[in-house]
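Appendix B, Record 12. Input sequence as logged:
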Amino acid sequence: MADMNGKVALVTGAAHGIGQACALALTQAGAAVCVADIDEHSGADTVRQIIDAGGRAFFAQCDVRHADETRAMVAATLAEYGRLDAAVNNAGIAGSFDHRLHEADDDMLDIVLAVNLRGVWNCMKAELDVMLAQGSGAIVNMASVAGLIGAPKAAAYTASKHAVVGITKSAALDYARAGLRINAVCPAYTDTRMVQMAVAADPRMAAIMSRGIPMGRLGTTEEIAAAVVWLCSDAASFVTGHALALDGGLVAI
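Logged structural output:
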């Protein structure tokens, strides 16, 4: 595992799923972590898991749609640990996957973009201010294979994740000579609570999701988290502006 000893990280959307796995993996690699989420109860549970395992973590409640809250989240991290070495901007929502664009709800588009795009924007602005002052730092934005290819009946989600990849690449160029690295990860279907709920609603979904992936299975949150930790660590010191597909071969089709 990549070494994060002595580092400080924050993870948004860390109460569940991939975000929780990232927070756990970062602490296992040696980092102290700010666990940020809108869900206070489940976020506190993530902190308890980390502390019970011997790690360092605290919870910051944050709705990434609001810049004042993302600034407060970063300020809380500085107050707790004194610096910020890595940030994982993971908070996001799926929206609807059951309508073509002309049938889709306009309000749903606004909500998806507010969380998935504006949320990453808000977080990066707060994080970059700190990292620029330090002269170092790594940011990993959570995109999706839907940020690399199209997804049927998911125009809003696909647009938001393409935007995350675009922001990542542009910002990586802006800060490449300032000692900052900015990358994205692009998972395919991953075994999370959201996917489990979809399968519970329609058991056929498990086979449909797996059939589309050349490796024939879903990803695990631990697999995604391992790649995120590597990108946050000095082991990835020459990697910036990259959108890493974690997809069992899906985008190779």
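The chain has a mean pLDDT of 95.
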